[in-house]
Design brief:
- There is one protein chain.
- This protein is mainly beta and 423 residues long.
- The protein has a single domain, classed as Porin.
- The chain is built from three helices and 22 strands.
- The longest helix is centred in the first third of the chain and has 15 residues.
- It is globular and about 65 Å long.
Length: 423
């Protein structure tokens, strides 16, 4: 609690100092209880609860002649393990205009671009999969990061540059509440076994840069992208000396990505296309078995309303590994899991509204026919009043091999219930 009070004071001071005395500051937020438990008794986690938390979010917003301020602050009591209090400044930024053509946003912010529905190719901003897998609101899939964003508007289109001075990785299960399979250990990792992966050194050359050019082409919103930084998951292994001899530890390899996307109306629905080339900088010859090979990713998606209050979409992603034969020979030699040269992932979201749109049924399925694994998200939401919303849901994982993307989480099937009060 002693940490929370100074945080509140700092945020309120920022708001007051930015806004003139007569300015109006809009305040709102919500309170929420979220409780969930795992279904597999063999899961090696430290608790049967995947989540047990009470959350309050406060939002403050001000629009003025000089610019805009927005703040979003979360306070959480977590009782799933040892009772703990925590807080996070999810957003806290100033936005202002320089001249007539440049917008600048500075501070902690949620960043997103690309066209995919829960599939990210050119969106290399941090994600929070530990929240995603236990039933927190969709907004928590996006992890915040400190950044400066410049947007320049011209007659040929808009240019967006995002600079993050400190690399921000994805937030992944640690083994405490959600287990995962570690192929190096050959076992599912539970409480106290995960360990932290060291981040790249905090220096200028390790900052993240993302660039997007966006313009309208016919009926399609098209964009080109560039990213320089690191893989968002610790996808590589490297030698480390712990004093007793050399060993390997996970790390975040360097990465650059170039890509493009298009999204527009077609055949009574919405069509989107996206692609990107992932250049693995730490393995330019694709011959290091401890570092990912470069790859080419592509995505096709289509969504439309198929009946009254019933909407469905379908996505197909492909990921083609370069120099696959080298990878296959190395994995076979070491006895590791060998993926296909072209990885396929199919997804579908189905949403049905009932009872004057007070009830929402939602299902989202990820399925890979090449890895033979899946992940399903299912929920029913009831808007009890304008302020109160009730939700129940499930997260289901399965896979033929525990080394695949979703197979590694196959012990984490869980159910959850959530009540939200907005104010």
């Amino acid at each position: 609690m002693r940490k929370i009070i100074p945080a509140i004071i700092l945020v309120l001071a920022a708001v007051v100092s930015f806004a003139p005395a007569q300015a109006e500051i809009n305040l709102d937020g919500f309170m929420q209880g979220l409780y969930g438990g795992r279904l597999d008794e063999n899961n090696p986690t430290a608790t049967e609860y995947t989540v047990s938390e009470s959350r309050m979010q406060l939002r403050a917003e001000h629009f003025g002649e000089r610019g805009e301020f927005f703040g979003r602050l979360d306070f959480v009591y977590d009782g799933s393990l040892e009772p703990t209090y925590d807080w996070e400044l999810r957003e806290g930024y100033f936005k202002f205009r320089m001249g007539n053509n440049i917008d600048v946003k500075v501070g902690r912010q949620i960043l997103t671009w690309g066209t995919g529905d829960l599939i990210f190719i050119n969106d290399l901003f941090a994600k929070d999969y530990a929240s995603f897998f236990v039933g927190r609101d969709d907004q928590y899939l996006k992890a915040p990061q400190n950044a400066i964003r410049f947007e320049y508007y011209s007659s040929i289109g808009s240019w967006t540059l995002v600079w993050s001075p400190r690399y921000e990785p994805n937030r992944l299960p640690t083994g405490e509440k959600l287990s995962f399979y570690n192929p190096m250990a050959g076992m599912f990792i539970g409480a106290g076994m995960g360990g932290e992966v060291p981040l790249p050194e905090s220096k200028f050359e390790n900052s993240e840069i993302a660039l997007r050019f966006n313009r309208q082409l016919g009926g399609f919103n098209s964009a080109a992208y560039f990213y320089k930084g690191f893989y968002k998951n610790p996808a590589g292994m490297r030698q480390a000396d712990f004093g007793a001899g050399p060993d390997t530890i996970p790390y975040y390899p360097e990465l650059t990505v170039i890509g493009a996307s298009a999204r527009g109306m077609l055949m009574g629905g919405i069509l989107w296309l996206e692609g990107g080339y992932y250049n693995s900088q730490d393995d330019p010859d694709n011959d290091n078995p401890l570092v990912p090979n470069s790859s080419i990713k592509g995505l096709f998606g289509f969504e439309r309303q198929i009946a009254d209050n019933l909407t469905a979409n379908l996505q197909w992603q492909v990921d083609m590994m370069t120099d696959y034969e080298i990878y296959k020979a190395q994995q076979t030699m070491f006895g590791g899991y060998v993926r296909d040269e072209v990885y396929h992932l199919l997804t579908s979201r189905v949403t049905k509204m009932l009872n004057s749109e007070l009830i929402k049924l939602s299902g989202f399925l990820f399925y890979s026919p090449t890895d033979e694994d899946l992940y399903g998200r299912f929920s029913v939401t009831y808007k009890y009043t304008d302020e109160v919303t009730l939700t129940a849901g499930a997260n289901i994982f399965d896979g033929e091999n525990p080394a695949t993307d979703f197979g590694q989480f196959q012990l984490n099937d869980n159910l959850y219930a959530k009540m939200t009060y907005g104010f």
